[in-house]
Specification:
mainly alpha, Arc Repressor Mutant, subunit A, globular
Length: 103
């Protein structure tokens, strides 16, 4: 599958995202998607539909805490799934723009 990505690996066209695209994006990051990843990716897409922005770390954590639970909102959990820049990588895999406050 050929995806049109920017220099940081984010989709140029958000409408190109689907589960196959997510798998390719994850592979590019060395991540094999599990049910735990999908739970966060779907939640991120819901956040974007609701607020028209990608959440940075704190907003993502607060949203997960409210929608799922405290343990899944912890940075250690998210870093285990998505690496050191969890909010940025999760947004990328969810087919969303890079969060504003992420380097």
């Amino acid at each position: 599958m050929k995806l049109d990505l920017d220099k940081e690996g984010f989709l140029r066209n958000l409408d190109d995202w689907n589960e196959d695209a997510a798998a390719v994006l994850a592979s590019n990051e060395g991540i094999e998607l599990t049910a735990a990843h999908w739970e966060i990716l779907r939640l991120l897409r819901e956040f974007y539909r609701r607020y028209q922005s990608s959440p940075a770390s704190r907003a993502l954590s607060n949203y997960i805490k409210r929608e799922l639970d405290q343990d899944k909102a912890r940075s250690a959990y998210l870093m285990r799934l998505f690496g050191g820049s969890a909010a940025k990588t999760a947004a990328k895999l969810a087919g969303l723009p890079k969060p504003d406050n992420c380097l």
